[in-house]
Amino acid sequence: MRHKLTHGVMYTALGIVSFIFVTPLLYVTLTSFKTEQEIFQVPQSLLPDGIYTDNYASIFSAGNSFIRYFANSAIITVTGVILVLVLSALAGYGFARLPFRGSNWMLTSILMTITIPLAVFLVPIYLMEDSWGILNTNLGLILPNVAVVLPFAIFIMRANYIGIPKELEEAALIDGCGVFRTWWNIMLPLVKNGSVIVIIHAFYNIWGEYTLAKTLATKPEAMPLTVGLTLFKGEVWAFGMLSAVIVLSMLPPIIIFMIFQKQLIEGITQGAVKG
Amino acid sequence: MADSSIISRKHLSIKTLNRRKQWYGFFFVVPAFLFIFSFMLYPVVYSFYMSLHNYNYVYDTSPTFAGIGNFLKAIQELSFRTALKNTIVFSFFYFILVMGLSLTIALILFHIKRLHGLFRTAIFLPIVVPVSLSALVFLWILQENYGLLNYLLRDVLGLTALAKPWLNVGSTAMVSIIGVSLWATIGFETILFLGGLQTLSREMLEAAEVDGANGFKRIFYVIFPNLKETYILTGIWAILHGLKVFVEPNVMTNGGPGNSTLVVYQEVYYNAFNRFEMGYASAEAYILAILALAFSLLNMYINRAKD
Amino acid sequence: MERKWNKAGLVCIALLLVFLTACGGSSKSGSSTGNAPTSGASPDSSTGSSSGSSNNQSSSESSGATKLTVAAEAWMVEKLFVQKAVDKFNAAHPEFQVELVPYADPTVLSAFALQWAKGDTDADIVIIDGTSNAVQFMARDLIINFNETNFFEGKTAKENFVGNVLSFGEYDGFQFAIPFALEAYAFNANREMLADAGLTDESGNIVQPNSWDDVLEYAKKMQKDGRTGMTLQWGPNAVYTMIASEQAARGSIYNDEGILTFDTPEMRAILEVWKKGKDEGVFSIDTFTNKDAGRNNYKAGQVGILFESGSRAPEAAPTIGQENATVFGAPGMETNGSFAFSAGIVVPSASKAQDLAIKFIQEALMDGEIQASAASVWGKLPVISEYFDQIDADWKTTLFNIIEKSITSPMYRDFPVIYKETPVLLQFYLNGEITLDEFIEQVENLIANAGKSI
Questions:
Q1: What are C305's strand-pairing partners?
Q2: Looking at chain C from residue 277 to 336, which residues have their Cβ under 8 Å from any Cβ of chain B?
Q3: What's this model's pTM, rounded to 2 decimal places?
Q4: Which DSSP symbol is given to B179?
Q5: Residue ranges of domains in chain B
Q6: Which residue in the set B118, B145, B229 is minimally distant from A163, CB to CB?
Q7: Contact between chains at C286 and B275 (C-beta distance less than 8 A)
Q8: What is the CATH number of domain B70-305?
Q9: Rounded to a whole number, what is the distance in Å from the CA of A8 to chain C's nearest CA?
Q10: Pure H helices in C265-381
Q11: 20 to 30 A Cα–Cα from A152, which one of B116, C70, C97, C344?
């Protein structure tokens, strides 16, 4: 009986939380189909009167810019995620299981780069990229995004490696298996969990990144989605337009999440069936 | 004879192993380290240099040395001190709430048997939206007259007394931005906690049950103490996110009403891009950075693995 | 074994992608040198405004330049009819090629400034939201002085500009910006709500309140049925509301030494009425944290009078009705003017197409049809007097009269500090946390400590 009660409470709690998390997004989706009249009428109506697609139409009719913003975002994000994954998988193991003199200092200095507000880096990064000639390019956005996302990704992988029992690798190493081979064949497969989290962390942070992109991609053809879509802001955001913009920038990550749901959930629950 | 030589080749001495590990360790870490620093070295050096100088990049032709002048000026400026106070208050409540709520949700998700996918999707959904956009949505939702929240409270649920001017009164403004920040980030912290929970070995958990520690007892005495690495991870993330908060107060309350929700990052941004004072902005940024680093290191120390 | 190939494959793909973007990325954006604009289409162009993909990088001498890049903040493209201006010009002058490149928000201006300081520029013309945001670029001669060009001839001669508008873009004899899209603070009204409260006469015209106490009465009468009587801009732009009120009440915002001051009997009286209105709940505090709350409420038909830029009324016409959206002056405005501001058109000194830029500004941006359309639809008023006649709205005479005598904010180097801190202090005062005397004292201190010369 008590068991059933606690379960009931748990499910209710999750239900409430889910409701709070999802409702604003649902509201936004509904609003994206409303006309400006409807949005401004008091009292509010939750459902739109009809499906008004002008908000979306005006975003797509603006030439093929939407596709260009999207393509930029896609390239920047995918490349960035892959780079982050590879580099953090290596470095995470190094910090977790291969101590060397100065490794703690290196870790701390890496941590330090993300304690400083990005705002004061904008000007020097701008000057740096200008002299390298990579302003307004996708590469020019990949590099800083990776540099900003990598530190925490390293921490995630490090934590994951530490969670693996030492015996597994000690055995392999003593048996003459090289460090690299141990890492490649034994450790990597076991950190699917961490890899998935790193992918999520990197993907969402790079996809939704705005500050760097705004400064380093001032020409519309180089802008990623987050900046390109703000060009649709009037002097003040028209809420209908804003909703459409949000829905469009939400859809790709959600679709990817849905497609890879199985792998993602497996990745996160991998540890549970271990042992 | 032949057997022993084969054996001695395969079983390496501990000393060689350690030395080899050290070299490998270095090489494993170096690519990432180089990547980060070849990109960040100039910005970090530049901003540190600037914090010790006065430089208005629109009016001045070159920086003038100021030593710790900017730092002293920041501490004495009322606006900065207020921002610092607000930031610490925000971070304090944000940290406790995000850690507590995320851990609770992760534990619940860990224990339930059905509807995993549904709940997980719902809880992870907010992190999909870039926070600058979701803050705008909440700005609309929290409006007193035509906002969705008050509409629900007033017209649907009849709780008129609760339909407050959320963003226009000091106390509720801070609560509102903490709330929105939580909405946007609990999903990710929950993922981190879930990941940590998954690394707990099945044997340990089952052994605890056999020993008579069910339910809550198992949570408190077995699970909690073994999540130290996860605390480091989630803790650092929460500390950094709390101290560096910018989008929510900037978009939703603009630091108001008055300056009750003004945060340090806003001051840095304003000084760097509205007044073009690179030096002063950098100094303020470094004060924040030192705080963030200190708390992060403290977090790592408290949760250090006992070898 | 299989996993090994997967990981190796991933690494190879990563490296491949990095190479691709390094090359592909730069060609996608057209060129890697900062200076040569490409012919990428801007988001709002319907038919091609710039021809094809030819990169007509002709000899970039300012006399022979045939290519022009105009940078405007994204919202200006539609609202100020800049896209239309570009299209018109291109159609009329096939030998020239003008391209419009929108930028996301004002902080991008600092990126421009960094470029200009090095003698480079991507844009030949930049339209900046607020001439006071352009004045700092004058300090190191990063933008040209229009007085040293042949701009002020013919249609755009100095006498043809409205009232004091040209001074909005001038400092110490240096004309750093040409004003564009004028706005003035006034009372935006919802005629229906006023009529409902008995504040209009038989022909439906609004009865002019002669003092702020009258205004308070108006607000009280309209505060019913869940609607707000009056909303004033008390948020980030609060200092403009104060300037507008003081200018209207006493005809000047400066003291005898020529320094900005709010310590005057007229201003104190107004501030006291504001506090009363706030305490009685008829002056809304919606704008405390959200500067657009008043505007949005007004558009929803929930506000009787909105004291903000007079462009709100035409903006709200679609939702509250053309006949209901109208503008009238605060007490004293018709005699003393109000606070006015405008966008500013600047030309970076590094531009290599300065002559063409000036021609474009004169012909395309200072075009009557363009300016009148922007006014009728969005309330962004013309800067050339005679264009006011072309506006299709009943409030045009009222606003014209007000603007003729209006002034803009003082051009102090540290005005951003005054702009940022005053609303904070005002909100403390309105919430009763400090007294009127303390408020005035602290604001005066703020002004005294602000660096004045640029």
A1: C189, C230
A2: 285-286, 288-291, 293, 296-297, 300, 302
A3: 0.86
A4: H
A5: 2-41, 70-305
A6: B229
A7: no
A8: 1.10.3720.10
A9: 41
A10: 265-279, 293-299, 312-320, 333-336, 354-360, 368-378
A11: B116
